[in-house]
Amino acid sequence: MKKILILGGTTEARQLAGKLALRADLSVTLSLAGRTESPVAQGVPVRTGGFGGAHGLAAYLKEAGTALLIDATHPYAAQISANAAEAARQAGVPSMALRRPGWEPVEGDRWTLVDIVAEAAKALGGAPRRVFLALGRQEVGAFEAAPQHHYLIRSVDPVEPRLAVPDATYLLARGPFREADERALLAEHRINVIVSKNSGGEATYGKIAAARALGIEVIMVRRPALPDVPSAETVEALAAMVDHFLEPVAERGV
Ligand code: NAP
């Protein structure tokens, strides 16, 4: 049995783990950061919590006898992706990444691009607006710097403590979100600007399509830089590459 560690926290990581776990020659463990209070069932053995930086992850890989590390974390989880590349190098373990492509703007989209979430709070401008924050609960704190706006904040787990702004509505929900439902939500709350990450994939694209249909501006936080490691864009493509990376380096011709 060859051991594979998948760094997860995404739908694709769960799907990849399920697919690889069907193989009798592989033993798959999925790693979660432990941010979500009740994560959906992953269907394979799970370990939870940080490793203690790249060095800690390298030690884990060696101790567990991991044959392949797969980074299937969210495109904005830049720290763990950097750690994964460095730990694999330190431990001499092959690594690969599942890199979901970002969304591209199409005709009718009104995107304003910013580099970080704090910049998005500034880009809202001085006049009060009705803002939909489709970000993780860890990031919404940046909007306390712009308390003049009304905020609709959607998250998987409650935002605790609540934001120190006078006018915010909280919504608990877990994707996927359909475009029609997103349109209804934006209309119901009279939203005129959305702050979003460029997550890519289908599950959260509904709000982007809905914004386009309604002519609503999207302040899009650009993707962070990620390490350059062998990667695939889909679960199927990555699963098809696994055997190649499980071969000893000499036989791979690298
Ligand atoms: P991050 O900033 O890149 O990572 C911060 C630290 O959290 C890492 O250094 C690591 O701690 C720990 N960590 C992160 N992912 C881990 C994993 N899969 N297994 C074990 N430890 C992990 O990550 P983040 O942006 O907070 O994201 C945390 C998790 O949420 C990830 O699994 C990611 O896939 C998921 N997620 C993130 C977003 C997002 O927008 N950022 C969206 C959806 C899902 P140590 O240094 O101690 O090892």
Task: Report on the architecture of this protein.
β10 (193-197), α6 and β11 form a beta-alpha-beta unit. It is elongated and about 60 Å long. α5 (179-188) packs across α6. The protein is an alpha/beta fold. The model has no long low-confidence stretch (mean pLDDT 95). The protein has two domains: 2-101 and 225-252, Rossmann fold (3-Layer(aba) Sandwich); 111-221, Rossmann fold. 31% of the residues lie in helices and 23% in strands. It has helices spanning 11-21, 53-64, 78-91, 117-123, 179-188, 206-214, 235-246, 249-252; strands at residues 2-7, 26-32, 46-48, 66-71, 95-98, 111-114, 130-134, 150-155, 168-172, 193-197, 217-221, 231-232. The strands form two sheets. Strands 3-2-1-4-5-12 form a six-stranded parallel beta sheet, with helices on both faces. A six-stranded parallel beta sheet has the order 6-11-10-7-8-9. The chain has eight helices and twelve strands.
